[in-house]
Amino acid sequence: MRGYRAIKYTLFVCCYVFWVVSAVLAAVGIYAKIAKEKNVVDTLMLDPALLLIIVGSAMFLITFLGCFGALRNATCLLKTFLGILTVILLLQIAAAVMGYLFTDMVMERTERLMMKAIVRYREDRDLENAIDFIQKKFQCCGVESYKDWSHNVYFECLDTNPSVEACGVPFSCCIRLQNQTVLNTMCGYGMQQLEAQTAGLDVFTIGCLEKIAWWAKHNLLLVAGLTAGLLLLEVCMIGLAAAQISRIKKVQQLKNTNATRSQSGRKDSDWYPAFADFDDRGDE
């Protein structure tokens, strides 16, 4: 019983933690979606708020099955939880294998997605903040180079572009000095008109796709460790769910066996005394 309780409550605690986290993610996504303007970016991969809502809601439902199933010993819910986690694990492994075998195709698709994000910059505040964070974090600008920002209508480098930011780049591309306390949001103006060597004195000129790929290669152990940790956690939860289902079945079988024995014992106890009384009367 101690082993069974350890399995049960360990699974419940793990699912409960992810359940709370998923609820917070979904709540943040809903708040961001309500707060932003209507008719903005509604594409899943280009709308951080929508992505948070979908991922958070899916996690919420899946972990709820695990929580309630573990707490109430509901084999139906536990089997559903086990099946969904197994499918997710297999899909993750398949995606990793496909990404390794078709690296060029993955990079091409990623480049297209990032370019779409640049085109829709300023259309969605959340997307704008996400791009600015990436460019600051990885010290990069654009997808392949800083001139990719010409694909955006605000930064398009044309004489007919009335925007004051024409031929420029966002301020998140700017190289910030160590002692700089006031952020100059106009530091990227006109940078697309300069050569890479000259513009590199004020802004980052290397694209984010190259910088992110470089970071992943030089932090391979960290990336592999995080990925392996996530997969190991999923495997542990699958194992705990399978173990609890097995224990519940054994307990049910034991109860059925005891019930059958008790019923047969009752029949014998009801028959033999009457038979004994009948013999006693016959002897009399």
Give the structure's gist in a few sentences.
The chain has 284 residues and is mainly α. It contains eight helices and no strands.
* Spans of at least 5 consecutive residues with low confidence: 268-284
Which of globular, elongated, flat, extended, rod-shaped describes the shape? Answer: elongated
Helix count? 8
Oligomeric description of these chains: single chain
What is the SS-derived class? mainly alpha
Would you spell out the secondary-structure blueprint of this structure?
Elements: H1 2-35, H2 48-72, H3 75-101, H4 103-119, H5 125-138, H6 196-199, H7 208-218, H8 220-283
Helix pairs in contact: 1-2, 1-8, 2-3, 3-8
What does this structure look like?
The protein is an all-alpha fold. The protein contains eight helices and no strands. The two termini are 54 Å apart. It has helices at 2-35, 48-72, 75-101, 103-119, 125-138, 196-199, 208-218, 220-283.
Keywords:
69% helix; 284 residues; mainly alpha; 8 helices
